[in-house]
Every structure is written in C-alpha cells, then in structure tokens.
Amino acid sequence: MKRPPDITTTEEAPVKKRLTTIGWREWLTFPDLDIKSIKAKVDTGARTSSLHAFNIRYVQKHGRTHVQFDVHPLQRNARKVVACEAPLIEERFVMDSGGKRTLRPVIETSAVLGGQTLIIELTLISRDEMGFRMLLGRQALRGRFLVHSGRSYMGGRRGKKKKVKAKT
C-alpha cells in the first residue's frame, strides 16, 4: 500500500539537522539549579515547561528580582529537597489542564536531556498533586526533538547508585 504523497518521514524530509527522538517521559538534569535528575513528562500540549516548586519567595539581589524556591525532584519523595535560586524573567498567567488561570513566576535555566544542553523557560508552581514533578513543553522541544509517544527514557535512564557490600 502506498503512502499518500503529503506524508513524509524524517528520513525523506530535507532537514538541515537531524532531530533527536525522545520518549513521552524523560530524565532531565538542571545544572544551574543543582538538580541532578528529575523525571519529566514530555507535553506537546503545553507551551511552556513547568517545574514543581514550593516555598516560592522573591528577593532583591544587585537591583534585580530573584526567585528562591524549593524542589522535591523525586516523585513520591518529600524528604529530598533541593533549594534553588534564579533571576525572575517575568510573571505570566498560565492556564492549567483544568482550565484554571494562575499567575506564575518564570525563570530561564539550562537543562540537559540526552546529552544536549538547552536553555529553557520554566514556570514555577506546586505540582504535588500531579503525576510528574516536571512538564517539558513544546517551546523547549521545537527544532530539537521529535517525540515518540510509545517510548520512554530514550535520552537515558537516571543513574542509580550501586550498593556496595561491606567486607566482613
């Protein structure tokens, strides 16, 4: 059966650079925020990426507004807390999946996914009740990644520490 002529694959399309394929969920690192690993849901329906944050505070530093906040980087684990700080880019109204508009702080930071370092915008909001601590939105994906909806962790799995047996 022949494919209709208006459909092209990445192999057939004239592409200046090859896009990396990622899954519907991936592990990311945020070196500027000292977050070693956080599981993200790749959400092409969300324009901007969103990070789980709590204890959000605004402070002035060198004449500029910064945001200080805490993050639980691991799902279902409230013991691990990472204290973060970043310059505030702006505050923006964002519509959540339930249709509710909230005013959120927006920061810009580097993220590492599958060996690629990206500079992305993040909105900060408590995601305690959500399935993922992080949503990776389409602005961060555009021009860099293709999303395979049936695969996970194509950018690599989170490194687990090996247990060392004590010598007796």
Are there runs of 5+ residues with pLDDT below 50, and where?
Answer: 3-8, 160-164
Radius of gyration, rounded? Answer: 18 Å
CATH architecture annotation name: Beta Barrel
Average per-residue pLDDT, rounded, comes to 86
The helix/strand series, from N terminus to C terminus, equals EEEEEEEEEEEHE
Give the structural class: mainly beta
Determine the oligomeric state from the structure: single chain
Q: Which strand order do you get reading across the main beta sheet?
A: 2-3-11-4-10-9-8
Proportion of residues in extended strands: over 45%
Largest sheet, in brief, is: 7 strands, mixed
For this structure, what is the CATH homologous superfamily?
Acid Proteases
Q: What is the CATH C-level name?
A: Mainly Beta
From the 3D structure, determine the CATH topology: Cathepsin D, subunit A, domain 1
Shape: globular
